[in-house]
Specification:
single chain; about 220 residues; mainly alpha; 10 helices; globular
């Protein structure tokens, strides 16, 4: 499934290159104060979902770059809460892991291993957190984190492959720098949004959605 998500994202990316470029620039500008970065992600992910609905579901309400601001205004509180909790958990797990790893009592050193696994699992959960927040806006933050956790442990191979591909893409873009960076973040958001969309279609959670993604997936098996 991971390769199918990358392939579908690449096709859509080239068809709507101008939209993704503009979205990336808007995300960078609105993220400049740093604290607004999660809110800017709300606008970016909402735009990605609108573009996918426009292209894959033939939504009569055509997507436009203005959807970025719609998502920003509508979801800035929810995405900011997720973002700040995200940072707090990473710092807590990271500091605690380092603390026990450097602890002078060897018995406590063994705790660093399980904590490192928790930190790695939480890192993989990032693939799903923002798309889940958008897909289930009425659910609690705890429910969103729980959904992300279960997606990681029930789809470990797809999750690892997608995260690895995104890390490679990020490394290449950072190495090339220049104009390439103006496409990186919208591409990452597109892949994340597509990943959750495929999962929800497989589970029958999206009624009436065009399921050509699943047909392509079965054809590759």
């Amino acid at each position: 499934m991971a390769w199918m998500i990358v392939r579908l994202s690449a096709r859509l990316f080239y068809r709507r290159l101008g939209t993704f470029l503009a979205a990336n620039v808007l995300w960078l500008i609105t993220s400049l104060p740093i604290v607004t970065m999660p809110a800017a992600a709300g606008g970016l992910f909402y735009l990605m979902s609108r573009v996918i609905a426009d292209e894959r579901d033939l939504d009569p309400d055509e997507s436009a770059i203005g959807d970025f601001w719609v998502g920003f205004r509508r979801y800035w509180k929810q995405f900011s809460l997720i973002g700040f909790l995200d940072l707090a958990v990473v710092l807590l797990l990271g500091f605690t892991t380092y603390f026990y790893w450097q602890h002078p009592v060897e018995l406590f050193n063994w705790l660093a291993g399980p904590l490192a696994i928790c930190l790695l699992t939480f890192f993989f959960m990032q693939l799903y957190l923002f798309p889940l927040r958008l897909a289930y806006p009425e659910e609690s933050v705890w429910s969103i984190f729980r959904r992300a956790f279960f997606l990681v442990i029930t789809r470990p191979m797809d999750t690892v492959l997608l995260v690895t591909w995104l890390l490679i893409l990020t490394a290449v873009c950072l190495t090339l720098a220049g104009p390439v960076l103006f496409l990186l973040f919208s591409t990452i958001a597109l892949v994340q949004t597509f990943a959750l969309r495929i999962i929800r279609i497989e589970r029958g959670e999206i009624p009436g959605a065009i399921i050509d993604e699943l047909k392509e997936n079965r054809g590759n098996k």
